[in-house]
Amino acid sequence: MQYHIRKPWQLAQKLHTPEDVYVNRRWHRREFLRTLGLSAAGIGMGAHLIGCDTASDEEVLKSGKVEVPAALAERAPEPTEKEWEPAKDNSFGALHNPNFEYGRPETKEEDASRYTNFYEFSGSKNNYSRVGDFEPHPWKFEITGLCAKPRVFDIDDIYKMMPFEERDYRHRCVETWAMCVPWTGFALSELLKKVEPTAQAKFVGFQTFDVPNKKDEQAGLPTFAGPNMSSGYPWPYTEGLTIDEAMNELAFIATGIYGKPLAKQHGAPIRLVVPWKYGFKSCKSIVRITLTDKQPATFWNTLGPQEYGFTANVNPEVPHPRWSQATEWMLPSQATRYDTVIYNGYGDYVAKLYA
Ligand SMILES: Nc1nc2c(c(=O)[nH]1)N[C@H]1C(S)=C(S)[C@@H](COP(=O)(O)O)O[C@H]1N2
Ligand SMILES: [Mo]
């Protein structure tokens, strides 16, 4: 039982901070270490997942864990007294942005990581048990199309160059499950600015890794044959936003979750997070971002245009053709239904985009 034992890099921020800097905080170092000891001794976690396989915590860790790249371990800044958030004891250095609140309890890490959608691996939710062969490091992705400075980015450079922060976001899947999780990353707009989109760029397309192919290999981009990619779906997985949606401050690129690098099943090493839209918009394990003047074809919209729109904003009043969207449930339990909120609660940020 190792779920709560953290690797040295996960402790870096605490242990590299002089004792006196955090002595008054809720997590005194000794107490912190004592907690780790307790966890190591084995705090049981109930197997109460619904609609998905259960596994030991160790199994989940082994299957979905990503070794932290050296560049990421090194980049943790020294926190100041004011900025440091004691509750986020496993942060790898990104400062917690207090401007985003769930309005609901945070989903437990073990619940979020054992119930994921990642169709490249499987159509069921237990992808954590199928991602073992996927290697998300080293990793490159390109930004191409209508921009002045198209380029290929190495994920290790991204760790060094971007303004990382942690944001607590709600997530709502079109299937009616929802979760509240802390993502580590940066605004998508900050990344797009690096390539200087031209005035002609009206849409932004996103693409996940494809099966091994010449085009990506020649561009130096990673490929991978996910076990479910022989099915008749329109691989690779694609998604898209308008340029205004992409430049909105909520649109986020995540490289971490719960203060750790993204587990493979969450879309390691880099994914999109668009919290006011249904979850399928949040494209995982990105290898290509394309600026275009036409609305790009997208995976679910191509498969079922009458069921999955391009815009796909969370809206309790627009039912899916096969079920209501008026309510939702929080991982891991369907026992309580919550009211769905228009734009998933983010109307203050994005309603203006659709006025
Ligand atoms: N490449 C890829 N990205 C994807 C998916 C997928 O199957 N493949 N599923 C989407 C769906 S339907 C949802 S709800 C979210 C789920 O994110 P999570 O599994 O990390 O919670 O990822 C989205 N991104
Ligand atoms: Mo979803």
TrEMBL record:
SUPFAM superfamilies hit by this protein: Oxidoreductase molybdopterin-binding domain
Keywords of the record: Oxidoreductase
Keyword Oxidoreductase: yes
EC number annotated for this UniProt entry: 1.8.-.-
InterPro entries: OxRdtase_Mopterin-bd_dom (IPR000572), OxRdtase_Mopterin-bd_sf (IPR036374)
Domain Oxidoreductase molybdopterin-binding: 133-300
Gene3D superfamilies: Oxidoreductase, molybdopterin-binding domain
A Pfam family per the record: Oxidored_molyb
Uppermost EC category: oxidoreductase
GO MF annotation, one: oxidoreductase activity
PANTHER family membership: PROTEIN-METHIONINE-SULFOXIDE REDUCTASE, PROTEIN-METHIONINE-SULFOXIDE REDUCTASE CATALYTIC SUBUNIT MSRP
Record-given protein name: Sulfoxide reductase catalytic subunit YedY
